[in-house]
Amino acid sequence: MEHTPAEMMVVAAARRLSNDDVCFVGIGLPSAACNLARLSHAPDITLIYESGTIGTQPDVLPLSIGDGELCETALTTVSVPEIFRYWLQGGRISIGFLGAAQIDRFANLNTTVIGNYRSPRVRLPGAGGAPEIATFCKETLIIMRHSLRGMPKKVDFVTSLGFGHDGQERDRLGIATRGPSLVITDLCIMRPSPEDNELQVTSIHPGVIPKQIVERTSWPIRFCAELEETPFPTPKELADLRNLYLRTESVTGRNT
Amino acid sequence: MEFTSLSKAIKRYVRDGDTVAMEGFTHLIPFAAAHEIIRQGKKDLALVRMTPDIIYDQLIGTGCARKITFSWGGNPGVGSLHRLRDAVENGWPHPIELEEHSHAGMANAYAAGAAGLPCATFRGYLGSDLPKFNPNIRFIPCPFTGETLTVIPSIQPDVTVIHAQRADRQGNVLIEGIVGVQKEAALAAQRTVVTVEEIVEDLNASSPNSIVLPGWTIDAIVEAPGGARPSYAHGYYQRNNAFYQEWDSIATERADFIQWIQANVERGR
Q: Which tens digit of pLDDT belongs to each residue from B182-198?
């Protein structure tokens, strides 16, 4: 079955999630990947949204982190101070799932400004829950489209810490969590290198050639020695994802 | 506590120059009250809200705000808040001051405010650039372990405005569903104004642990059915996601925005 790069990205991200995960879900691509996992191979995964909904099971993709269905289908809904204090800071979340406008070679994320903070060229929405998700989940997954603008050598603003500007900032700050373990784009999968935490390509999606990745990354991107090809989306994975999008469109009238 | 009209409540309890928190995390956003603030032309407000959302886009675009304290300033699931961006990027209708936090920071600051503390202590902003630009984010050593902890001032608004499902005749208020930070924001404030879907004989709380704000913690209650639209009221009506998407085109250009405000806010509803 034919698939789009965007479908490959969401499917590859969903594969990484399992029944045992307790996942703090960002809106957009992370939410699509987490719900695809829940509706296919990981029905018992626990999804938590920052609106305080724990163990939520929406039938369609929410537009916002606080859509009514998230609360109606949740095991329980707690206050926003509680979700951040007891559950996130308290160390109860295994995986944080984030997107960003920019990511750099040490997986630092920018969702704040393009350009200078005081007089920005583009004012982005800001931090939301991300700075603490990035440091208190046991590990974080990042999903975003691969582009030159989105993959600068150094982000304009570190909203959420990856490994800092030299790859060693987590150690210096005494942060015990693992940090970004996987970056999934529409071209490839990247992981921090075991030597210096710089992102390197570990798996290329089918039909993508390395040159495309090089041309859409602002730093000289490295490819690991045992480079893999990401397995094609299976017919079932594609069907599950498309059904989720179709259901969302028919229930909400929204273009997904 | 008094039962009153929306115009009297805003006139009496929201003053020019006030620090105003209008909370509701995606759910129960007090739009009717915000529109009354716009109609009364309140000025120089220091607006506090975790997710400014369309509601503060409207207050910023109509010139009510001098400062915004926030943690995520987008149109959820849609994109930018164009009026917020126009104020920050181009100073229209006038420049605004930003105090920028993370959700964890704001949530902790409200909880500290409700607890009567001067500051919130937690772990946050580690490795982020936010503390470089927000002098209110500081770090102290834990006196017991030596660990570096984050402190920010508590949020104690002059007035908090929230929307809730219902109040009873004694003015006790029930909040259900995604409860956000409304309880903390209300208890942290000097004055609290609550708009409700309806005023009833019996609150019919679904559990003895439901969130109920006693009438004696509230200054004014206003019956404002539909007062959270286009956000939603759990048990009453759903979020108007289509409007959130439409807002993107309404707010992109100044002229379209002004026209929308004139047609939908200035002329009442």
A: 999 999 999 999 999 99
Q: What is the CATH number of the domain that holds B208?
A: 3.40.1080.10
CA of A53 vs chain B CAs: smallest distance (Å): 7
Q: Is A200 inside a domain boundary?
A: no
Query: Per-residue pLDDT tens for B57-103?
Result: 999 999 999 999 999 999 988 999 999 999 999 999 999 999 999 99
Q: Evaluate whether residue B149 is within a structural domain.
A: no
| Distance (Å, whole) CA B155 – CA A179 | 30
A50 catalytic? Reply is: yes
Of residues A79, A132, A175, nearest to B181 (C-beta): A79
The ipTM, to two decimals, is 0.96
Predicted local distance difference test score (pLDDT) of residue A28: 86
CATH of the domain at A176: 3.40.1080.10
- pLDDT one-digit tens code per residue, B119-172: 999 999 999 999 999 999 999 999 999 999 999 999 999 999 999 999 999 999
- Residue B76 contacts A, CB cutoff 8 Å: yes
A102 belongs to a structural domain: yes
Average pLDDT over residues B246-263: 98
* Number of domains within chain B: 1
The reply to whether residue B103 touches residue A50, judged by beta carbons under 8 angstroms, is yes
| Domain boundaries, position A173 | 5-186+233-252
> Contacts of residue B78 in chain A, CB cutoff 8 Å?
63
Q: Do A110 and B130 touch, CB atoms closer than 8 A? A: no
Number of domains in chain A: 1
Q: Which domain holds residue B95?
A: 2-101+156-266
Distance from CA of A135 to the nearest CA of B (A): 7
As a whole number, mean pLDDT of residues B216-224 equals 98
Which A residues, 184 through 243, put their C-beta within 8 Å of a C-beta on chain B? none
| CA distances, B84 to each of B52, B254, B262 (Å) | 9, 12, 19
**Quick check: is B128 in a domain?**
no
Q: Residue A220 falls within a domain, yes or no?
A: no
Q: Measure A28 CA to nearest chain B CA, in Å.
A: 7
Please tell me which of the candidates B70, B73, B234 has its beta carbon nearest to residue A68: B234
Whether A204 is covered by a domain: the verdict is: no
Determine the residue of chain B that is closest to A128 in CA distance.
B72
Rounded Cα–Cα distance for residues B233 and A62 (Å):
16
Binning pLDDT at 50, 70 and 90, where does residue B14 land?
Answer: very high
CA distance A80 to B110: 10
Which residue among B81, B108, B238 places its CB closest to the CB of A68? B238
Chain B residues inside the 8 Å CB shell of A52: 25, 178-180
Give chain B positions within 8 Å (CB) of A129: 72, 102-104
Q: List the Cα angle B11/B17/B19 in 5-degree steps.
A: 90
